[in-house]
Amino acid sequence: MREIAILGIGQTKVDEHWDISLRDLAVEAALATLQDAGRDTAEALFVGNMLSPLVSGQNQLGALIADWAGLKNAEAVKIEAACGSGATAFRSGLMAVASGEIDSALVVGVEKMTDKAGHDVTAALATAADADYEAEQGVSFVGLNALIMRRYMHEYGWKHADFAPFSINAHANAMHNPFARLHQKITVEGFEKSSMIATPINLLDASPTGDGAAAALMVPAEKVNGNAKKIIVAGSASATDTIAIHSRREPLFLSAAYASAKKAYSQAEVVPKDIDVFELHDAFSIMSALSLEACGFAERGRGIRLGLDNEIGPTGRIPICTRGGLKARGHPVGATGMYQVIEVVQQLREQCGATQVDGARIGMAQNIGGSGATIVTHILKRA
Amino acid sequence: MREIAILGIGQTKVDEHWDISLRDLAVEAALATLQDAGRDTAEALFVGNMLSPLVSGQNQLGALIADWAGLKNAEAVKIEAACGSGATAFRSGLMAVASGEIDSALVVGVEKMTDKAGHDVTAALATAADADYEAEQGVSFVGLNALIMRRYMHEYGWKHADFAPFSINAHANAMHNPFARLHQKITVEGFEKSSMIATPINLLDASPTGDGAAAALMVPAEKVNGNAKKIIVAGSASATDTIAIHSRREPLFLSAAYASAKKAYSQAEVVPKDIDVFELHDAFSIMSALSLEACGFAERGRGIRLGLDNEIGPTGRIPICTRGGLKARGHPVGATGMYQVIEVVQQLREQCGATQVDGARIGMAQNIGGSGATIVTHILKRA
Fold first, then answer.
1. Among residues B169, B125, B383, B158, which one has the least CA distance to residue B282?
2. Among candidates B91, B90, B308, B321, which has minimal Cα distance to B214?
3. How far apart are CA B38 and CA A177, in angstroms?
4. Helix or strand or coil: residue A331?
5. 0.95 surpassed by complex ipTM
């Protein structure tokens, strides 16, 4: 595979953008990316999105956004893998450039979630689960994660407050990210008093939805030698697990995270301790623990300890969610994987101010679709 | 790009499969393909589908189908470009193998359309159009095509009966395809008397929906030298046009068909007269005329003549829809592009019986998303 560089990035704030349509969010991020890259167009467009058919009555986002971004006659498609759509789109763009078929890929993750009533969005999000054997039983997506969290607490003996450091770290980091949805510090007391959603998941265990778009431009690395902004994709892998949680032999082990991270480590020729920053998929606090464990940063059942031991902040052993994570930057589902990628790029470019990880050279982004059914891992390196 | 071969194909009949679920249709085609290829697994799965979130309440089809087809931990995604989803999935699989990232790609196009009332499916299909500027006006997808057909008849002076040969040819060919949805011959008189849907499009101008799945397995060509079933992908290109018809300078010219065909011809080093068989996207009879024109088989406004002059049958100058086309094989929207690809493979393998094109060596498949917004062209060659 030829080496691929990320030449430009762009994003919108994650928010309730009542005044900006789905296509305009995408175009805003796309044009910011082209500007950042110093290019005026791209050969092909890869869109990551989950909900637009259900929430906006719109399919064919590839053609739509290519049209509105002015990419005349460009190749364009949408890639969907539930909340993992963003990173799967990124990987599709990567493979397209790597194949030699195209020389520049613009990847946009975009989601518009606040145009519908909340119960409609909850039903739409349930399409990430197994429609015939999970959603059919009436269990919502947060309900499925609550089952996993409860099992984890039972199995390993942790109490609810032990999860607080994940959310506290995310909120603290988001204070310094102007694109984050939530700018409010939280405490262990506030975490414990927060409203219950689906026991044991309360409001501060769960990431907020939102509208947003994040994008990146990829090109063959050899064509941009000497460019100071250049970041290399050193590892890229995607794997799946059973879609239904009840089909897994070990429901507390993210086997697709393990498989994709293992492959990405091998491609990048690194081991977990080489990772300077890890943008993981903290849709719920339990997922932070499971991701850290599956990716080799903690033993099974011990991911929680990294939070309790203050190892996850920007100066910790494994800084996570340095721009706020899903928990506080917000989780515009199909866009999230692209936010993670460009946040790693921002770290490697040393653009993160108060939450900059000192001397960050190698960063990892991991995006999850469903309750661990699709997991995509990317490792980026400063060139 | 390294050369890619199609090693196996599989399909289900297009029908109202009330007793087969979405996932089971996909798995049936997937397993038939692996069997045809003599393989027992694939490294990655690319699913083409348009409607499952809306019709089946199911997203994340990549993981779902990988799970149910037994592709443990395989990479898997869904690609969507409305009715062009099938061919975009095929091209995604092609680029993934070409990149060297994976060595075998299983591509499955699948659609389940008959589990909902017809008006629900009509609304779901309208998501292929521009939701804010076309569908918002209440125009259905067939309505948009009716506007194009009416304009074509006005501009070039053709009457409705002149479109009959396209539908008659498709129905005649489908008589010999056991996987086709419709097995009934039609005549010019029957064509003219058929029920009106959206003037001037009547029932026999329009393709029927249906449930179905079609699949193919792709591998690097150099790894299967000497395999008699091997078919090479000689050209592959995808292009877009404006999503809304009213934004096009020339609404009767499929500019994305022109752009993608031109690129595919150039890659395959062929010109239109070299194409032995052309599986085009006859969702409506008007689209046959426009596709033939945009791809260089007829002058603008003259595509109709190829039908009237008996040039589109299996022994004609440019045989189209040799297995029944969308019109009579049926149009399970997100699966259609894959049916087209494997039908070309069947021609190149000389498996088409009464509709076999004599000595077919080079075939083309062209899949359209929306009213010409996404168009993907593939050229296959007998190895």
1. B169
2. B90
3. 53
4. coil
5. yes
- Which residue is it, tokens 């017809």? B118
Backbone CA torsion sign across B44, B49, B54, B57: negative
Residue B76 is predicted with a pLDDT of 98
Range 220-259 of B in CB contact (< 8 A) with A: 236-244, 247, 255-256, 259
Half-sphere exposure of residue A92, counting CA atoms within 13 Å on the CB side? 38
Residue of B nearest to A24 (CA): B132
B111: contact with A, CB 8 A cutoff? no
The one catalytic residue in B17, B281, B331, B378 is B331
Does the pLDDT of residue A160 top 90, yes or no? yes
The helix-helix angle for A22-37 and A61-68 (nearest 10°) equals 60
Cβ contact (<8 Å) for A240 and B67? yes
Longest dimension (CA), chain B: 57
Residue B338 to residues A204, B21, B107, B355, B381, Cα–Cα distance (Å) = 45, 19, 8, 19, 16
| The Cα angle at residue A36 between residues A34 and A40, in degrees rounded to 5 | 30
Q: Is the pTM of this model over 0.95?
A: yes
How many residue pairs bridge chain A and chain B with CB atoms within 8 Å of each other?
207
* DSSP H or E stretch at residue A5: strand A4-11
Q: Mean of the per-residue pLDDT values for chain A?
A: 96
Q: Does B143 touch chain A (CB under 8 A)?
A: no
